[in-house]
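REQUEST ID: PR-0412
SUBMITTED BY: lab tech R.K.
PRIORITY: routine
TASK: structure prediction, single protein chain
INPUT:
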Amino acid sequence: MSGFIDYTATARETERALLRAGLALGVDWDDAVAVQALVRETLDRRQGMRRAAARVPHGPERQRLNLCALVVLRRRIEVEYDLAGRCDAGPAWRAISSALDRELDGRLAG
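STATUS: complete
OUTPUT:
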């Protein structure tokens, strides 16, 4: 089934979308604390630990939700395709991936 998806192109497009969303929200990919907070928020939302707003989100709130969704999408690409290191990771993804690994290790250990 994976023959239908161009993982390399999808990873590149996702990286560009991460960079655009991060720029719009003022995320500094070199700021480990900010990236870790974004990853924590993403995992909390994914696990249902953060309640969705009662109204349809817009503006920065919607951008933040989109950024969280991009993090999840990029991790899926990494898990399904990048096991052999075939996808080039850009600066945003390298920062997020490291933070994801740290956060998951902390959650699994605790």
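NOTES: The chain has one domain: 7-109.
REVIEWED BY: pending
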